[in-house]
Structures are given as C-alpha cells and as structure tokens.
Amino acid sequence: MSGFATFGNELYTGKRSYDFVGAKKIWFIIALVGVALSIIIPAAKGGFNLGIEFRGGSEFTVSNVKTTDAAIGEKAVTDVVSGSVPRVANVAGNTMRIQTDKLTDDETLRIKQGLTSAYGVTDNEVTSTFVGPTWGADVTKQALIGLVVFVLLAALLMALYFRTWKMSLSALAGMAVTMFITAGVYALSDFEVTPSAIIGFLTVLSYSLYDTVVVFDKIRENTSGIDASTRRTFGEEVNLAVNQTLVRSINTMMVAILPVGAILFIGAGLLGAGTLRDLSLALFVGILIGTAATIFVAAPMYAWLRQGEPDLVKQARRVEQRRAGAAERAVPASPAKA
Amino acid sequence: MARTGRKTPGLRVLVWLGVILAALTAVLAGGTIAGQASWAPKLALDLEGGTQMILAPKVEGGSDINEQQLNQAVAIIRQRVDGSGVSEAEISTQSGRNVVVSLPGTPSAETRNLIQASADMNFRPVLLNGDGAAVPPESQTPEDQLPKPTAEPANSSDTNWITPEIYKQFEALDCNSAAAEKSERSDPAKPLVTCEPATDKTPAIKYILGPVEVKGSNIVTSSFQLQQGAQGAVTNDWAVNIQFDAEGTAKFKEVTERLNQFYVAAGGESGTDPKSQFAIVLDDQVISAPRSLAVITDGRPQITGGFTEQTAKALSDQLKFGALPISFDIQSEQQISATLGGEQLRMGLLAGLIGLLLVVVYSLFQYRALGFVTIASLVVAGALTYLAIAILGWTENYRLSLAGVAGIIVAIGQTADSFIVYFERIRDELREGRGLVSAVENGWKRAKRTVLASKAVNLLAALVLYFVAVGNVRGFAFTLGLTAIADLLVVFMFTHPTLQLLARTRFFGEGHKFSGLDPERLGAVPLYRGAGRIRTPEDRPVAVRSKNAGAAAEAERRMTIAERRLAEKQEQLAGSSKTSAKENK
C-alpha cells in the first residue's frame, strides 16, 4: 500500500515514467491487431452465439432439479414435438436450461408440464420464455439505433467539452478500439449475446469515454501553457499527464471492476445464464480494455495528431535547444527523462 | 487559501443534504403511513415471479400503428385483463410500438387468448334485461314455465330468439362476480347473454341481446361534448356523438326505426320496454345500452343521459376502438417462477454486497482513513438511491428488476470513481506542497469539472439506453441514470463538504500516517531549509518567498515537484546544500 502511494508519487513527479506516447507505434499495432482479430475470429467462427431473444424460440429454466440428466429434458420435449432437437444444458448447480425451436402456445404449456414431472419439480420452479420470430429483428434494430445514437451524442458531447476535434477524435478512437475488442472477446468466449449483454456493451462505451475524459482533462491542464514552456515537448507533457493519472486509472478500474467481478462470479457461478452474467461479462472485459485503450490508444493518438502542428514543432525545437544547452553546461545528471 | 467566511465551510451544505434526506424520508414515511407506499421498493416480475408478455398491436389492414392507437390498445388490454379478474396487472407501452403486459403468476390459457384477441365491438338490440345478480336456484323459473320460441325470429329484436337454454343462462348469470372471460367471442348471428358491469354510480345489469345489427367497424369516429339544449344553449350534461359510415348509417336507420316503435308504444319517456334499447357491446360486454328516442337517419346518433365528462370520454374512446380493430401478436413471453425470481434477487443482493465489500476494502487499502469518507459517501448515495426508488415505486409504480439491481451494483464502482478522481486531485495538490485546506479547495476546483463531465457521459449513456432499450433491460439504464444523479449530489453535497471539515481536523490536517493524506507519504516532504525547522506545508509559500523573492515564486509556480527535485539534486551535487530532504523510496 505504501508501495502504491510511492508508486503514485514517482509517477507524479516523473521520477518513474512509462513511455506510453513514445512507443505509440507498438501500441497502435497491438490495438489494430486486436481489432482485426476481433473481426476475423467471430467471422471465422460464423458469427456470435446469439441468444434466444435474437433467434426466436422457446426456453425453459428448471430450478432445483433432482437430476441433471439432459436426456430427460430432451425426451420431455420430443414427446410433445417429435423431431425437435432441443438444446439441454445444466447451467448452474441444479438448474437446467432447455432451448427449443419456436413452439406454439399449446406446445409450450405441454412441454412445461412434461418438464415439471420429468425433473420432479413443482410448477413454481419452471420458468419459460417464448420469443416470437420478429422480436429478434426488433431487438437488433433497437440495439443498433442505441449504438449509433450513443456514438453521435458522445461525439457531440466530446466536441463541446474538449473544443478540439483532435481530442474528440482520439477519445472516440479509444472507444472504438474498446468496442471492437470487447465484442471480439465476447465472440471468442462463446457467451450468448443477449439484450443484457448488449446493454452491458453500451455501458462499456460510456465507461471508456468516461475514463478518457478524466485523463484528457489532465492532459489539457498539463499542456495549457505549452507554447511558452521549453521544459517538455508536447508528447512528453501528454505522457507525463498519463503517468500522473495512472494511479487514478488503476484505482478507478479496480473499483469499477470489483463489483462487476462479484456479479460475474455470482451470475455465472451460482445462477447460470441470465441477466447478471451476460451484463457483467461485457462490463468486465470492457472496463479492462477501456482503461487500457485510454492509456495506450487515445492519449498517444492525441499526441500524434498534434505533434505536426507548426507551433508545437517550433516548441519542440526550443525544448531540444534548451536541453542541448543544458548538456553543454555539463551537468552530470542529465535532465533527459527516462 | 482558506475560504473568506469565518463560518466552517461545508457545514451548511451538509445541513442541506440532511434536510433533503429527511424530506425524502418524510415523504416516504407519509406515504407508508397513508398505506399507499411501502418501505421496500417494488419488485419487477423477474424478481417476484410472474408473466411478462410483449405484444405487438396489429391494426387490421396492416397499417402502422400510431401513438393514439397504441394508447387505445393499452386501454383495450387493460380492460380485458381487469375484466378477467387478474389483479395487479401492469400494462404499459414500450418504444412507442409494443404493449407490455405484466401479470403476477401464470395466466390461464383463457386470459392469454383474451389478451391477444382482436377488439370486437358491435351493436345488438336488447331483448330482455334484469338486475345484475343471479336469480337464486330456488326462485328460478321452473322448467315448464320457461319462455319457448313460438316461431322463427323475424328480426333481431324478436323475443323468439329466447330459448329455454338462453333464459336459464340469463337467470343463472351473476354480473357482480368477476366472471372468467370466455376465450372465444360470441357468434354475431346468435343471441348473447351478457352483463353491463357495475360502475361507481350504476349497479350491474344483465341482458339477453339479439344478433349483431351494426358492426363497430361501421363507426367512422366518435366524440363527446356538452349537450345543447332546445334553444341551442349549452347545458351541463355531457353527450357522446357517433358518426357511422354509409353502411352503418343505413343499418342504424333501420334499427332505430324498429326500436323507436317499441319506445313510442311503451309510452315514450316513461316507458321501460327493454326492446327500445340497443346495446353497445365491446368484447362481449355491454358498455352502454341507450334507448332509441328517435329514428336516426343521418348516421350521427347522440347518446345522452347521466354522463360526466370522464364517462363521456371513456365511452367515446371505446367507440373509437370499435372503429379500429386491433389484434396482438405475442412478441415474447416470459413466465418466471417465483422460485427463480427469489433466487435471482438473493443472488443479486449477494453480488451487490460482495461488490460493495470489495470496494470498501480496496478504498481503505488505498486511501486509509479517507476510505471511510468513500464508504460514508457510498452509504449516503445508497440512501438517496433507495429513497428515490421507493418513492418512484409509490408515485410512478417503478419496479426494481434484476437488471436494475445490476445497474445499482455497477454504480457502486462508478460512484466510487468520482471520489477517486477527487482524492487523487487532492493528493496531487499535496504533492505540489500545498497545505491540506488549500489542497482540498484546489483539488476540488479541478476535480469538479472532471466529475461533471464524466457524469454527463454516464447520464448520456443512461438516457440513450433508457430510450432505445428493449425488453426488460430498461431497468438497468434507469438505475444507472438515477445513481449518476445521486452520485453528483453526494460528491457536491457530502464528500466535498466533509473533506472541507476534515481538512481542519488535526488527524487529517496534520497528515496523520493513516489519514491517506499524509504529505510525507505523498512525497510532499517539507524541505529542510537548514534553519533547524521543518517547514510545514501550510506556511510554505511564505518560507519560499522570504528566501527567494519574485523569481522563486515564479519558478515555484512553473515547476512541478519533479523539477524542484532535480534542481535540488543539482544544487546538492554542486555542494551548495548540506542536506536534502530524505528521499522517498
């Protein structure tokens, strides 16, 4: 703990510094590879594992079953609808989940009864979900609208807040990387994509932006009087800002991810599939990636976008001159930064 | 650096927060005592168990549904569900397209069919009416005295429609108990035995009705207005106007010609012949059965008599449904068992508790005593959120869903985030060598902007999610937005004022080792200026100024502690300084 505070101090003073901005090429390549993989892998796997809300169909959840034998469930379904190929899975503890194709109302009720007796539970322990064929399209449409509306509004908000398009663009780039990689991890994990997962996903976008706003605020503060200063180049100022907020970034991430981790563990471990698990996986992955994207993509990108500006080029030259001058005066401890 | 006022800063804000909390608690307590609210938040179906159906209304002819039609659709379903005796059903619209019906428990197949069915309105002539209560079995008409048809009925008003079976059914019908609705609609070509349910002012009435004469789809529109007297003066009585299309006009003329004869024959105003009445039947229930006072030839009848503005509007709206046959497709249906719901709630709360605990431990670990400020802030935020949810449950019928619980849990982290941003800023200020009181003020000035901007992002996300969310994940967006607002209130009205107060205590102000704001630990080591006195952070600016006047002050402002260190180091190397401050490791 005291180690962490010292770590924070050293980052703040610049005594210890990680070169996030200088090594931007490496981070950009890693991010691009990550994004590319996130597109290729799901495509190669044949898309996402869409939940029943998107596919349409019926789903039954039987709690407190006496036996977790999948065959019993399959039989209960095929007894009512012969030729149906139900997906039966033991999702948690003693909970079974049975997914079928689209059923009629009558079939749904009969299968529900069949499952009740097959697994030896009471009526109260069978939950059924029926999703009509057009619902999935509706859900997908809404999710896409949500995504587009959010990105547009976020872009507007960023533009208003930062007043510089380069910052807005960098923040959105960080968000885009977070978006793709989170989606990629979701596809890779084979978790079902449900409306809950999508909501978690959209929340991640907000987290990603939120995180970037905090770091960019510090960058703006550090670089406000850059023209008159010869101490550091613009890139170095940005890097210092990122370092100075690193402890904040880590703490924020930890504090955000701890409750989500608790939901993920409880949701996945004890309850099986459901709202909690779907939501929390997207959040868990997204918060990690989002924090990293701010540090490794958004901030370096901002430095990179601005480094070619004539004023900043001149300023960088002045910094070099001063340093060269300082070196000539032969001070043993060179002020060059780590 | 300190505030100008002599009063303790922050205290007044804290008092205001206390007032807000007390007021909210009082509102909720008042509601609870009045028996309308409850201390526990209302739970949504997925936590309580029950059935939720999402229905897409379909207008005959396949045209898109507009908002008014959707509201009518909701009204239709509400009437059906209420009529079927299911209590505590909730019916709402979603995304301007769908109707969401939430029912406790598992609905019967009948209720399900009923909800989906198309609205069905028509006009039937009344053959017989009677008191809404069932005739007790002992006084029912004996078998041999039951009315028997003597000939084939000539028209819809012919009492020859009344067979012994129908009469028996009529006598046994009890309109005062909520009868289970039939899933199938009556045959329009046959007589119908049904009720007009009781209202606040009128008791239930039961009827035997003839076959359908005019269909609801023949209604063009309906309106309501204050009735005009003979001289054209507006009276205080409300009236409902109907406008039929050409087919309806012709048929209605025919009906009123026949019915008006019964009316005249029975002695006009004073008459009581039920056959002079025509019943407006919606989903096989009589909603009104006016008498035909005149022959209506222009297809624009006016119904009068005992309406208030509300009842006139209600009838007028119902007549509009008749003009708009809506049926419903079940888009998705979830039946959640109470067992699963209860378990989800338990697990949700457990997850929340564990999450909270982890955050608390982490805060204490990172921020020591300052962590307690985080915890207290979380408690205040929690109290605000809880009160808001409970009050919204009362006033807006807001129900907490599992997704909503998830939103609250996620918010624990997001709420704690604002404190971290703030605390880190204070630490930064301390590292720059400021005293705690001014570090709190300066840190706040900088953190405030960041916190506001970041909460704006959170709120934006919550709003977007709320308005586009489908299914029952809307609760997540709602609690996320709610907690973002609670968080803002807490940071501004609790966390910052509390720190202002704490900054003046010895424990924090002097940077106790466990305060989390220990300047020494934060690298803001008071510089040893060789005068045998450790400069306290508080008087630093004075000390600097006295030593190095203007230039130093300028440098001071420009230099971060990094440069200051470097400069010292160089100084030290040059042998001009005896000791340097003890190095941080």
Give your account of this protein's structure:
Helices cover 68% and strands 7% of the residues of chain A. Chain A is α+β, with helices and mostly antiparallel strands and 338 residues long. Chain A has a four-stranded antiparallel sheet with strand order 2-3-1-4, sandwiched between helices. In chain A, α8 packs parallel to α11 (275-306). The model of chain A is unreliable at 334-338 (pLDDT under 50). With 585 residues, chain B is an alpha+beta fold. Chain B has helices spanning 11-33, 45-48, 67-83, 109-116, 164-172, 246-265, 309-322, 338-367, 369-395, 402-431, 436-468, 474-502, 506-509, 540-558, 561-573; strands at residues 50-59, 90-94, 98-103, 121-131, 192-196, 205-209, 214-215, 219-228, 234-244, 278-282, 285-288, 302-307, 326-336. In chain B, strands 4, 5, 6, 7, 10 and 11 form a six-stranded antiparallel sheet that branches. The longest helix of chain B is centred in the last third of the chain and has 33 residues, at 436-468. The two termini of chain B are 31 Å apart. Residues 1-6, 526-557 and 575-585 of chain B have low confidence and may be disordered. Chains A and B meet through α1, α5, β4, α6 and α8 of A and β13, α8, α10, α11 and α12 of B.
How would you summarize the topology of this molecule?
The complex is a heterodimer of chains A (338) and B (585).
Chain A: H1 2-13, H2 24-45, H3 52-55, E1 57-62, H4 70-80, E2 87-92, E3 95-100, H5 105-118, E4 126-131, H6 135-162, H7 165-189, H8 195-222, H9 234-244, H10 246-270, H11 275-306, H12 310-328
Antiparallel strand pairs in A: 1-3, 1-4, 2-3
Helix pairs in contact in A: 1-9, 2-7, 2-11, 4-5, 6-7, 6-8, 7-8, 7-11, 8-9, 8-11, 9-11, 10-11
Chain B: H1 11-33, H2 45-48, E1 50-59, H3 67-83, E2 90-94, E3 98-103, H4 109-116, E4 121-131, H5 164-172, E5 192-196, E6 205-209, E7 214-215, E8 219-228, E9 234-244, H6 246-265, E10 278-282, E11 285-288, E12 302-307, H7 309-322, E13 326-336, H8 338-367, H9 369-395, H10 402-431, H11 436-468, H12 474-502, H13 506-509, H14 540-558, H15 561-573
Antiparallel strand pairs in B: 1-3, 1-13, 2-3, 4-6, 4-7, 4-10, 5-6, 8-9, 9-12, 10-11
Helix pairs in contact in B: 1-9, 1-12, 3-7, 8-9, 8-10, 9-10, 9-12, 10-11, 10-12, 11-12
